[in-house]
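User: Run a structure prediction on this.
Assistant: Running it now.
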Amino acid sequence: MEKYAKLLKKHGIKVTPQRLEILKYLNENHNHPTAFQIFSNLKERNPSFSKTTVYNTLEMLKAHKLIQVLTISESELRYEFDNKLHHHFLCKKCGKISDIDVQCPFFEKMLDSEYKVEEVHGYFKGICTRCSKEEELKSET
């Protein structure tokens, strides 16, 4: 928890047990959870967690660029702790979101332009390997 406390202090954010728990949860769960999933899982461990606290904390962490917010799914925002440049793949069958390391061919050009790039989002959508294999097995029978 000390590393999360240092991170919050470095950004001038008051350290609270809830903020520490949310950062820890996002760092340990790489499944790109929704705010409600974060709330539900943390509420199981700590009944004093409120939805408002989770949503407000996520907004504050986003504002300080400590977390990424994904809009890959039209119906809900997803969150992750990983701030390094990477893209995402959404399986349209099972809904799983995976990190993928693909170089953006335009990123370097944009850094050298007159624009100040603050975010880059690359989303790929299709059928994941696991679901593709399941479809193949079903079609063989």
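Residues 51-63 form the longest helix (13 residues).
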